[in-house]
């Protein structure tokens, strides 16, 4: 059976990509390079929990792709439980994403916000 063509690529679920930003940048550049895989920059997305404002800003500057913010929870206390590595408030991270993405070209400026809803029985 033949697989359908790929239309989107998301870096997610393999550890925090911004902690390995240089290697992720190289991979994304190959995916979007016209003489390599030639994916649209809008079709490639790097998902992050936002480990720090400085890494978010750097990622927005160097990645030729979209960013996705894996929120986990809107409440800072619950988010700290679900993402123990969290060191910054939602407000700090939101403001950083907003400022960093404003500097990106319009074609890759959008931010995907990811949130999983889990029912507790």
Structural class: alpha/beta
Given as residue ranges, the uncertain stretches (5+ residues, pLDDT < 50) are none
- Span of the ends, CA to CA: 40 Å
Average of per-residue pLDDT values: 91
Number of beta strands:
4
CATH superfamily: Aldolase class I
What's the order of the H and E elements?
A: EHEHEHHE
Strand content bin:
5-15%
CATH class membership: Alpha Beta
> Biggest sheet, in brief?
4 strands, parallel
Described by the principal axes of the CA atoms, the overall outline is globular
Question: Which fold name fills CATH's third level, the topology?
Answer: TIM Barrel
Determine Rg (CA atoms, Å).
15 Å
Q: Please state how the strands of the largest beta sheet are arranged side by side.
A: 1-2-3-4
CATH architecture: Alpha-Beta Barrel
Write down the domain tally. 1
- Total number of helical segments? 4
Organism: Haptolina ericina
Keywords: 4Fe-4S, Iron, Iron-sulfur, Metal-binding, S-adenosyl-L-methionine
GO molecular function: 4 iron, 4 sulfur cluster binding; catalytic activity; metal ion binding
InterPro entries: Aldolase_TIM, Methyltransferase_A, rSAM
């Amino acid at each position: 059976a033949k697989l359908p063509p790929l239309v989107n690529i998301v870096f997610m679920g393999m550890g925090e990509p911004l902690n390995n930003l240089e290697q992720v940048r190289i991979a994304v550049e190959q995916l979007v390079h016209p003489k390599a895989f030639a994916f649209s920059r809008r079709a490639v997305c790097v998902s992050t929990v936002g480990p720090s404002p400085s890494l978010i800003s750097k990622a927005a500057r160097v990645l030729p792709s979209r960013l996705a913010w894996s929120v986990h929870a809107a409440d800072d206390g619950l988010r700290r439980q679900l993402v123990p590595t969290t060191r910054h408030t939602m407000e700090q991270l939101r403001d950083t994403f907003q400022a960093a993405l404003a500097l990106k070209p319009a074609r890759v400026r959008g931010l995907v916000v990811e949130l999983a809803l889990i029912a507790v029985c």
